[in-house]
Specification:
This protein has 281 residues and is of the alpha/beta class. It folds into 2 domains: 172 residues, 3-Layer(aba) Sandwich (Rossmann fold); 94 residues, Pantoate--beta-alanine Ligase, Chain: A,domain 2 (2-Layer Sandwich), CATH 3.30.1300. 38% of the residues lie in helices and 20% in strands. The strands form 2 sheets. It has a 6-stranded parallel sheet with strand order 1-4-3-2-5-6, sandwiched between helices. Helix 6 crosses helix 7 and helix 9 packs antiparallel against helix 10. The chain is globular. The termini are far apart. The protein binds pantoate (PAF). Pantoate (PAF) binds next to strand 2 and helix 6.
Length: 281
């Protein structure tokens, strides 16, 4: 596996691969890998000749009071893990190369960025859309792999690639969970033992929502309240949002007619976790 830090070298390498029609699959990440990341890399490797993993803790997607400086990092461990699943290139640019002095160009995806995480983290999706566009330009992928735990992020990127005619096939991969149901996240390492136990309420509440629909419930608001009630019953959980919305537009719905997304963002101590489920009817 080759490690590239220089943005120009990355782009030269990617353009040379494109010239030879060698398909590249990219897995964009912020590092501190877990099995969820590895599942993206394995799939990128399986479906393309070359798997590029990008590892960049993107400052523009963190708010002022968020965890940018504390975000967990371990380059040596991450390199070994990426190599173990067959990544060909690990791209780790320094922040000053991605955003040099005078940088002033941003990508803003409008409606789909507004609700849920867009409301609690203003500017977050502008940072995500901007860096993903840059990473696409630098790695020239045929396909790009993202995890569905960040469901709204996937919708923002889908809209962006469509609206800007970016020739990349998006592959959204299922959430990978711990044996007790907790969605894997680099931020899980922040949780204390008690918070880690409490956090299992999220996947349980979402699974119960699926059962509620299977039993015939069709009112989005009732489903949302049902999930909220279960999370409120956990004393360590502080709700940021619980939403039951149309899975495509992320707009509120009354009766479910299409696939519905139930998405939650909940704080346990200082750690904000997200999780979701798409319920087909
Ligand atoms: O999902 C993430 O890790 C990040 O938001 C991404 C897509 C790598 C952009 O920084």
């Amino acid at each position: 596996m080759k490690i590239i830090r220089d943005v120009h070298e990355m782009q030269r390498t990617a353009l040379a691969l494109r010239e030879k029609a060698i398909p590249v699959g990219v897995a964009p990440t912020m590092g501190y890998f877990h099995d969820g990341h590895l599942s993206l890399m394995r799939r990128a490797k399986h479906e393309n000749d070359i798997c590029v993993v990008t590892l960049f803790v993107n400052p523009t997607q963190f708010g002022k009071n968020e965890d940018l400086s504390k975000y967990p990092r371990n380059e040596a461990r991450d390199s070994a893990m990426a190599e173990s699943v067959g990544a060909d290139i690990l791209f780790m640019p320094p922040p000053e190369a991605m955003y040099p002095a005078g940088y002033q160009t941003f990508v803003d995806v409008e409606e789909v960025s507004l609700p849920m995480c867009g409301e609690s983290r203003p500017g977050h999706f502008r940072g995500v859309a901007t860096v993903v566009t840059k990473l696409f330009m630098l790695t020239q992928p045929r396909r790009a792999y993202f995890g569905l735990k960040d469901y709204q992020q996937c919708q923002v990127i889908r809209r962006m690639t469509g609206d800007l005619n970016i020739p990349v096939d998006l592959v959204f991969c299922p959430i990978v969970r711990e044996p007790d149901g907790l969605a894997m996240s680099s931020r899980n390492v922040y949780l204390t033992k008690e918070e880690r136990r409490a956090a299992t309420v999220l996947s349980r509440a979402l699974e119960n929502a699926r059962r509620f629909v299977e039993q015939g419930q069709r009112h989005a608001e009732k489903i949302r309240d049902f999930v909220k009630m279960q999370i409120l019953a956990e004393p360590l959980a502080v709700i940021d949002y619980v939403e039951a919305v149309d899975a495509q537009s992320l707009q509120p719905i009354g009766q479910i007619a299409h696939p519905m997304l139930v998405a939650v963002a909940v704080r346990f101590g200082k750690t904000r976790l997200i999780d979701n489920i798409v319920i087909e009817i």
